[in-house]
Design brief:
Strand order of the largest sheet: 1-3-2
Shape: globular
Order of helices and strands: EHHEHHEHHHH
Number of strands: 3
Distance between the termini: 48 Å
Largest sheet: 3 strands, antiparallel
Number of domains: 1
Strand content: 5-15%
Radius of gyration: 19 Å
Helix content: 55-70%
């Protein structure tokens, strides 16, 4: 099945999004969410390696019209890599402010998109799209492996303790985070008209693309949060 996520937007959207990313970074610094910032920066690098290095250069499934590809995809990778990974990290922190962080990020995405449409008519237009048939199967295999690890850890914990109430990983909660983060920005793109290709990217990408990394990020978060607080102070 070929699902083609595409976007059409203007350069004002890029400038507004950069300003929003900087504002979000300042908020994280003020609130001392330092590990979340690092998670976001690592996420940005991963997204750029995958989007530019693999999708654009190696596979040729990513196309960019109206902008220099490397620069545009670097911004795109930071835009969603930073927000997605930092947001997921904060959600995994369970600091009691998951709703507030979520509303802050989603409304930021929504506002920048609408402002660019209202005031960006004089700016040049950019169009990008990405084919998925050559790698969605691989992504599904990565997702299966990650969730299989969590499932087996739960089964093993239950067997060792021989108790039905043994402490288990809340897999449904992890699955919900993986789906909702991707669904949120896919929905914003669709509602604001930046994503013009219908609901299939919303459905398929929400189930697969961010969600495939959640089991691994959960395990990394558990290892780090067991030793350090968000401000790098030791527990």
């Amino acid at each position: 099945m070929e699902v083609i996520p595409a976007r059409i937007f203007n350069f004002l959207y890029v400038y507004l999004d950069i300003a929003w990313l900087l504002a979000l970074l300042v908020i994280f610094i003020i609130k001392k969410r330092y590990i979340a910032i690092i998670a976001g920066l690592i996420g940005s690098l991963i997204y750029f390696i995958v989007d530019y290095g693999i999708f654009y250069l190696a596979l040729g499934t990513r196309s960019v019209a109206g902008a220099e590809p490397a620069s545009l995809l670097l911004w795109l990778s930071i835009s969603y890599g930073f927000t997605n990974f930092a947001w997921i990290w904060l959600w995994l922190d369970r600091d009691g402010y998951a709703l507030e962080w979520s509303l802050l990020i989603i409304t930021g995405w929504f506002t920048t998109a609408l402002l660019s449409q209202n005031f960006g008519s004089s700016f040049a237009t950019i169009s990008i799209q990405r084919g998925t048939s050559s790698y969605h199967g691989v992504m599904a295999a990565i997702m299966l492996a990650g969730y299989a690890i969590l499932i087996l850890k739960n089964i093993r914990a239950g067997s060792q303790n021989n108790q039905t109430n043994a402490k288990r990983i809340n897999i449904l909660w992890i699955l919900a985070i993986g789906i909702l983060v991707q669904f949120s920005w896919e929905a914003v793109l669709l509602i604001t008209g930046i994503r013009p290709t219908g609901i299939m990217p919303l459905i398929v990408d929400s189930i697969l693309e961010t969600n495939l990394g959640l089991p691994y990020l959960y395990l990394i978060h558990n290892a780090i949060s067991g030793k350090y607080r968000e401000n790098f102070s030791k527990l």
